[in-house]
Each structure stands twice: as C-alpha cells, then as structure tokens.
Amino acid sequence: MVSKSTLERQMAAQEYKHGFVADIEEETAPRGLNEDIIRLISRKKQEPDWLLEWRLRSYRHWLTMTEPKWANIHYGPINYQDIIYYAAPKPKKPVERLEDIDPEIRALYDKLGIPLVEQELLAGVAVDAVLDSVSVATTFKERLEDLGILFSSFSEAVQNHPDLVRKWLGSVVPYNDNFFAALNSAVFSDGSFAYIPKGVRCPMELSTYFRINAQDTGQFERTLIVADEGAYVSYNEGCTAPVRSTHQLHAAVVELVALDNAEVKYSTIQNWYPGDKDGKGGIYNFVTKRGKCLGVNSKISWTQVETGSAITWKYPSCILQGDNSVGEFYSVAVVNNYQQADTGTKMHHIGKNTRSTIVSKGISAGHGQNTYRGMVKILRGATGARNYSQCDSLLIGSKCGAHTFPDIQVMEPTAQMEHEATTSKIGDDQLFYCQQRGITPEDATNMIVNGFCKKVFLNLPMEFAVEAQKLITVSLNLEGTVG
Amino acid sequence: MLEIKNLHASVGGKEILKGIDLKVNAGEVHALMGPNGSGKTTLAYVLAGRVNYEVTEGEVLYDGKDLLAMKPEDRAREGVFMAFQYPVEIPGVGNAYFLKAGLNAIRKHRGLPELDAMEFLSLIQSKMNLLGLDESYMKRGLNEGFSGGEKKRNEIFQMAVLEPRLAILDETDSGLDIDALRVVANGINSMRSKDRAMLVVTHYQRLLQYVVPDFVHVLSGGRIAKSGGKELAEELERTGYAAFEEPATSAAPVGP
Predict the structure, then answer these.
(1) What is the mean pLDDT of residues A309-322?
(2) Are the C-beta atoms of A414 and A443 separated by less than 8 Å?
(3) Would B253 be classed as within a structural domain?
(4) Contact A418, A388 (CB under 8 A)
(5) How do the domains of chain A map onto residue ranges?
(6) B106 touches chain A (CB under 8 A)
(7) Residue B49 is part of which domain span?
(8) Could you give the ipTM of this predicted complex?
(9) pTM for this model (two decimals)
(10) If you measure CA to CA, which chain B residue comes closest to A422?
(11) Is A437 within 8 Å of B98 when comparing Cβ atoms?
(12) Which residue of chain B comes nearest to A446, CA vs CA?
C-alpha cells in the first residue's frame, strides 16, 4: 500500500531535466550597475540616442524606487551590484546562416529539443532563439516578411524598425511602472519583437525560447508585440535555465498591443530552474506582462503554465480600453519542494461591453506556497462590462499552502461579476478509488492533476499542451504510464 | 475462490472485525447483511485494501494467494472489484478516460494488448445500453455532478467493463429509487456467471428480491452471526436485526 508520505517523498525526488551548462565563450560586462554599464549595453547594441536616454531615465527612476514587498513570497536580499547585466556569446564569425551558429549553442538547443533546422519548416514554427543577451538566429523571418510580418530579436528591431519600436516601447508598461519593470527598462538586453500589419493573420505560431546560460547573469529580456487592425497572432514562449547553486534574477517585461479587431494570444511555459529539493538555488522570476486592448473588438489572451523558478512574481494583465474588447487569463502554477509563486492577473475594464475571463489553477506540493493574486477593476463608464473569475487550488500533501487574494473593484453599476473559488486536496479516497480500478497512486495523481488543469490546457496550442502536461508530471515527479 | 479465515481488523485502533470466517466459491452470490456498524463496509474495504484498515489477525486467500499482501491496484488487476457505496468525484477526468486507464492497466497485468480509443468505445457500447447510460456520461468528469443513482449505475457499468472475478458490492442499492434499482439489479444479474463470485453487502432485503443470493450471512458485532439460504434474508425483513444487535456486555455470539 502506498501511503501519502511515500508519494510526498517521490515528489521531492524530482529532477530538473534541463540542468546542463553549455561551455560557450561569453563576453561579459563587469558586475554591478551604474550609468556606465547602461551606456556599455547601449553601445554594444549600437542603439540610437533616444533609446539610451530612455534607459538612463529608467535607471535614474529605478534608483528612487524600492523593491515591492507586498507579495506573499519570502527570499533573502538581492544584491543588484553583484549581478552581471550584459553577457553575449562571442561569435566566432558573423552569423548569416543557421549552419553558421556556434555548434555548442546548436547542441545546447538540441538538448532542449528546440530544432533550429529544417524540421521547423515542417513544424510551421518560427523560432527566435535568445541565448543570454543576444539573439542567435531568427528563422522564417523572410517568409513572414512576405506577409509584412516583422518578427525579430528586439535589438534587430531597434536597428531596422526604430520608428515602430519607439512608438510602442513603454506604451503598455511605462518605464516607471514598478521596480522590476524600471530595472528591465534600464538594462534590458534583448528579447523579441513582432509586428503584424493590418488585416494579416499570422499563418504560424511564433515562438521564442529564452534561456539563461552564463553564471550570475541576470536576464532582462523585453518583448513587444503589436497587432495592427484586424491582425491575429499566436505567440509561444518557453523558458529553461541550467542548474546553479546560487539564485539568478530574471526580470522581464512583455508588452502586447491589439488595435481595432486585432487578437493576440500569448502562451508561456515557464520552466526555469526551481532550485533543489532543499530550496537551494533557483531562478527569481519577477516579470511584468501586460497587454492593451487599444482598439474596439480587440482581444488579448494570456495562457501560462508556470512550473519552474524558486520564486515567481508575475501578473499578466489586460487593459480593456477599446469597446467590446476581451481579456483572458488562463493559468496553471505548480509549486513543489520550496518553490513560491505569487501570480495572477489584473483586468482593467475601461471600454463599454468589455469582457474578461480569469481561470487560475494552483497546484501545491512538498513545502511549496502558491498564491493567486487577482484584480478586476471595472471603471465607471464601462457599461455592460462582465468578468468571470475562477480560481481553484489543489493541495498534494500536508506541508504545502494555497492562498487567494482576489481584489474586485466595481465602479460601474451595470457591470456583472462572477467569482468562484475552490480548494481541494487529492484525498486518500480518490487515490484508493483509482487503485481499486487497477491504477497506481502515481498515475492516479497524475490523472487528477491533469483533470484539474484541463480547462487551461485546452487554451494552449496542441504541442504546447502536450509539453505542459509532461512538464507537470515531471515537476511533481509522477512519471508513470498514464498520459 | 475467496477464503477468509479468522479475520480481525481495526480502524484507528478500534477493533471492528472480530474473527470473520467465510468461504466463497466461483459462481456463487453471497449476501452480507447486518445492522449499521456491524462491520460490513469494513470487511469490503479490508478485502479491497484500503489504507488505515489494519488487519490484526487472520488471513484471506484469493485463488490460494495471500490477498492481504497485495497492493490495492494489484488486487484490482487480479480481478477483485469493489462497487463503492459513495463513489468519489474526480473533476476534469472523463469517465471514459478513467475507465479505459483502469481497463488497460488490468489488461496489461494479464498480458493482454491494451485497447485503443476505438476498440474501447465499441467494447463499452452495449454495456452502456445495459445500464441506460448515454454517451454524454462518458465525456463528463468522473462522477462529477452525478446524482446518487447515476453514481451507482456507473459503478455497475464499470464492473461490467472490467469483468472482475470477485465483485464486492457495497450498499449498491442505497439511495436508489425503484426504477434505478431494477436497472442496477439487471446489470448485476447479467454479470452472474459460473466463473465469477459476488459478495453483495446490503442493509435491506429489497435488492435481494432482484439479485437472488445463494447464501445469506448476517454480520453482527464484527462476526458472522448466522448463515443460511435466501430465505434468511426474507426472515430478516420480517423480524429485523433486533435479535442480532450487539449487547452492551459480551454475550456469547449466536451461530455461525
């Protein structure tokens, strides 16, 4: 008979599968942060003056700010002067073709299962791979360009489409938005940029694989996606980082803009290194993600599966400015061992008949602490606005925790709000029932967890959903035969 | 097929079963009756292997093998099925998906090829009809939002699909209206065979009007107080369990 404590032990024994370190020659800036470092980053990237000024303005503002402490997470002090803010793999020669990429980097991506080669064509995925700070290669750019779609690293976009970048950068997440966004605005190294022109439906999933490689390197990527009138794009982001005994900081910013009748779907699988079973090491993930439904009938949909990081601080949000615009947030957050997650969303209803849906599923195991924090704000004048929120927590074992902090502010009398919340535990009775039908407790737990997450997984692109399911099985160490 | 010898079991340190002896052969249907708290459900759980039901003495042989040494899932794979009095709900896990996982785990254990979705669907079709379940049931979450009657029908449906050798039906009649009782009884009867044994745990005699047992046992105070044929159930219906209620002091047990 398998007791619950056996199950807990098995889960504690989880192993991080992407924990290898690639030996790539890095070009790094000295530790610490000051205006010279920012000038160095900007110079390395050959940025225009306005962008350097923006970075410096952000930095100077950041100096006046303090780290937010309101989240339900606990960690030691972060020494911002001990972080390396710029690391670039030294190319042996300029990269022009995929075949020219450093074989070490190629091998590393192969281990991660990201094929940067011809299979991509068949798979119909365009990958903009970001290794530390410099975008290594961008595939399919030309094919997308035929449709007028711009998809490149952020740095390239600054060079090739400075007007577009300048127009939208900081328009959704201003440089002074919050402590981590200000830091990112000062030092962001690279990231992805996508622009979908009027009336164009992006024919393939756009995808970026971020990866932190250099030791003691903070990664500060910045992503900007603009869907012009009537455009549609689905963007996938996956993240992994190697095993390090020290904590690493990751502070990203993602900005999405949807104009009239446009739709942006943004899916994330976050599998940064979570630390070991005793809570040693792991990524500190402080991320600001926000989308603005600027146009009428526009739609922004966030789907996230968060299984990694020692600490997750992340609230992908929607500003529903255009009339009839729609915001969605679907989330699965898993914590095991000593992981902590404080995650949720904000839905700002400004336009008339705006609608938002929030479905949050938190799974806690080991000593993990999982917090849902969500705000729904319906401003006066957002007549007919509607929100549906559902946040469910699932507990595995007796030492973990689930917390829910919903904040609902309705200033519009015609608005409608619905909020549902449940907390459940995988019970002995459920496991026994499954066992009585021939199913092992491990498979049963896996099945129950996947059933719990189903509503969110349904919103992921097919291959991503399969990966998410596998990842959760690995995170909870429930590898078995039922899948 | 099943041989229970001097079985003692405790739950939370309290002894519930105080020396059960029972032999069940293939092809037989045994009814296990008794007042509330007499240990009927405890016996069912012990046979199925529920955690925290601690066997303190005695043994249980299943086809000559030590049943109590097997994990619950292995007992199921060896053909022991329990229909629960209160089947659990597992939201988001489809009924069909769950049952297919169970069936394939059992088939794998027996060296049979696993069924794919199409084969599984054709297998369950006639059994769904038998229990009056339509396709929408299969897509719903396991017992999720099911009425009491639906849950019981689902239990018997699962039995029909898994085709156990020993079926333990725990209070399958409780909470059923007369029409649902007939459907469920019909499902149970269709499963009677010379290779299969059934242990029907029930408080009332009414299920036994439809599922006529070969033997009836009365459980009282953790022991089998009386055994007989189907007429014993009818007798109990007239006289009630008063004669079998456990006295406050330890009196000599009646029977077996």
Answers:
(1) 94
(2) no
(3) no
(4) yes
(5) 26-425
(6) yes
(7) 2-244
(8) 0.93
(9) 0.81
(10) B91
(11) yes
(12) B93
